[in-house]
From TrEMBL:
The active site is at residue 96. It is an enzyme of class 1 (oxidoreductase). Catalyzes the synthesis of 5,6-dihydrouridine (D), a modified base found in the D-loop of most tRNAs, via the reduction of the C5-C6 double bond in target uridines. Specifically modifies U20 and U20a in tRNAs. The keyword Flavoprotein applies. It comes from the Bacteria. This is tRNA-dihydrouridine(20/20a) synthase. Residues 11-313 form the DUS-like FMN-binding domain. Its EC number is 1.3.1.91. FMN binds at residues 13-15, 66, 135, 167, 207-209, 229-230. GO terms for molecular function: flavin adenine dinucleotide binding; FMN binding; tRNA binding; tRNA-dihydrouridine20 synthase activity; tRNA-dihydrouridine20a synthase activity.
Length: 330
C-alpha cells in the first residue's frame, strides 16, 4: 500500500457521466479526491480518436483512466497510451454488467476468470510505471462472494495490482439491467471489510450506495478509501466539504461566485474550441440543491443551455436565480 497514494476519496467511473467536463467541475470543489474517467475500451484507446477519448485538462489531476478489455496485450498497449497522456493511474474494469461488455468478455463477467484478470494486470504493470488498479464486484450470478472475491483479490494482488476498489454488490449478468444492477443486488459492506482485514497491507477501497460524507467517514474506519458515484454526480455540492472532512485540509473551500466564474470561463473556452454549452452544463444541474431558486437554476440549464448558440451568459442568468442564497451558504 505504501506505493499507492492515500486516495481516501474517489469519484467513481460512470459511463456517459464522468467525462472531462464533469471531472473539471468536481475538481473545483475538491483538490484531493481521485477522479476517474468513464470506461474506455482498450481497442478504442488504441485505434480511436485518442484526444477525444483520452484528453483531459491539467487541472483534473489526480485523475485515473479506467480501461475495459480482456486481452493482456491490448490492455498493456492501452495502458501505455494512457500513461503517455499523463494519467495518474490505470484501472481495469471488472465490475460493469452491461450487455456490451459481456459480449466483449470483459467487465463484471471477468469475475469468473480471475487468472485472466491477473494476466491483464501483470501485462499492464510491465507496460507502465504508474499505479495499476482493479475495480470489481464481490461476485457475479451464483458465485459465493466469500470465494469469488478472495480468489480475485489474491490473484490480482499477486500479479502486482496496487489497489482493489470493490463495489459491494454482486452483479447479476442475466435477468437484471445495468441500472437494476446498481440498486437491486443487496449491499454487503461487511464482505469488503473482511477482505481488508485479510489484506491489511494492501489498499482496499469500497464503493456502492454511499450517499454522504458521514457515511464515507464511517467506512474509512474499516477500509482505505471510499468511492462515491451517483451521490457525487447528482449532488456535486457535497464535495465542497470533502477536503476538510476527509483529507484534513483546512483551506477555505471554493465559494459559489468563484465556482460559477471558473465554470463560465471553462465553458467559453470549450465553446471557442467547437463545443457546446450543454456539454458542460449538463453536469452542473445538481448544484445548489435545497436552496431557493434551485428549481429555476435547473430549468434554465436544462432548456436554454441546449440552444446551439448558447454561451456562458446562460449560466450567469441561472445563477442569478440563486443569487445571495448561494453567497450566504458559501
Amino acid at each position: 500500500m505504501e506505493n499507492y497514494p492515500r486516495y481516501r476519496l474517489a469519484i467513481a467511473p460512470m459511463m456517459d457521466w464522468t467525462d472531462r467536463h464533469c471531472r473539471f467541475l468536481h475538481r473545483q470543489m475538491t483538490r484531493h479526491a481521485l477522479l476517474y474517467t468513464e470506461m474506455v475500451v482498450a481497442d478504442a484507446a488504441i485505434h480511436g480518436h485518442r484526444e477525444r477519448l483520452l484528453g483531459f485538462s491539467a487541472e483534473e489531476h489526480p485523475v485515473a483512466l479506467q480501461l475495459g478489455g480482456s486481452d493482456p496485450v491490448k490492455l498493456a498497449e492501452a495502458a501505455r497510451i494512457g500513461a503517455g497522456f499523463g494519467y495518474d493511474e490505470i484501472n481495469l474494469n471488472v465490475g460493469c454488467p452491461s450487455d456490451r461488455v459481456q459480449s466483449g468478455t470483459f467487465g463484471a463477467c471477468l469475475m469468473k476468470s480471475p487468472e485472466l484478470v491477473a494476466e491483464c494486470v501483470a501485462a499492464m504493470k510491465r507496460a507502465v510505471d504508474i499505479p495499476v488498479t482493479v475495480k470489481c464486484r464481490i461476485g457475479v450470478d451464483d458465485q459465493d462472494p466469500e470465494v469469488a472475491l478472495d480468489t480475485l483479490a489474491r490473484q490480482v494482488i499477486d500479479a502486482g495490482a496496487d489497489a482493489l476498489w470493490v463495489h459491494a454488490r454482486k452483479a447479476w449478468l442475466q435477468g437484471l439491467s445495468p441500472k437494476e444492477n446498481r440498486d437491486i443486488p443487496p449491499l454487503d459492506y461487511d464482505r469488503v471489510y473482511r477482505l481488508k482485514a485479510e489484506y491489511a497491507n494492501h489498499f482496499i477501497g469500497i464503493n456502492g450506495g454511499i450517499q454522504t460524507l458521514d457515511e464515507a467517514l464511517d467506512h474509512l474506519d474499516r477500509v482505505d478509501g471510499v468511492m462515491l458515484g451517483r451521490a457525487a454526480y447528482h449532488n456535486p455540492g457535497l464535495l465542497i466539504e470533502a477536503d476538510r472532512r476527509i483529507f484534513g485540509d483546512e483551506r477555505a473551500p471554493v465559494d459559489a461566485v468563484t465556482l460559477i466564474d471558473t465554470m463560465c470561463d471553462y465553458a467559453d473556452r470549450h465553446i471557442a474550441a467547437g463545443g457546446r454549452l450543454s456539454h458542460v452544463t449538463r453536469h452542473m444541474i445538481g448544484l445548489f440543491q435545497g436552496m431557493p431558486g434551485a428549481r429555476r437554476w435547473r430549468q434554465l440549464l436544462s432548456t436554454e443551455a441546449t440552444r446551439a448558440d448558447a454561451d456562458s451568459d446562460v449560466i450567469r442568468k441561472a445563477f442569478a436565480e440563486i443569487g445571495e442564497n448561494a453567497v450566504e451558504a458559501a
